[in-house]
Q: What sequence folds into this?
């Protein structure tokens, strides 16, 4: 996979996730790597109302981009993303959920079982 990211940290994350997807036989990590490898103008931004609408209680969600604070979350979710707005992070935690970085979730769930991608 040709990596288009210019930031070294993001470039390393994309390469690590793609490698994990191939070696572990977990295509979800390769899909997240492709999502992170998009141009900035076509990057993913997900609002909380969308997470609340499509996720079930206690789901583990991966967002290959940013989570924004528009809307409310009414159920506990575990959300891993590249970045969070401060409002989004506060609202997720207020609903009993958890926020984390993508690399942290990849360490916990190397095979990617039980994860959903939203973008």
A:
């Amino acid at each position: 996979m040709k990596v288009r990211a210019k930031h070294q940290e993001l470039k390393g994350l994309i390469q690590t996730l793609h490698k994990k997807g191939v070696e572990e036989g977990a295509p979800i990590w390769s899909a997240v790597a492709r999502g992170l490898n998009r141009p900035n103008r076509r990057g993913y931004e997900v609002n909380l109302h969308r997470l609340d609408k499509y996720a079930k209680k206690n789901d583990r969600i991966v967002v290959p981009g940013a989570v924004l604070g528009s809307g409310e979350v009414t159920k506990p979710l575990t959300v891993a993303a590249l970045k969070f707005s401060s409002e989004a992070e506060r609202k997720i935690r207020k609903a009993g959920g958890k926020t984390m970085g993508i690399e942290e979730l990849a360490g916990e769930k190397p095979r990617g079982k039980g994860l959903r991608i939203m973008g």
About this structure: The first helix runs from residue 8 to 24. The first strand starts at residue 44 and ends at 47. The mean pLDDT is 93. Residues 90 and 109 are 24 Å apart (CA to CA).
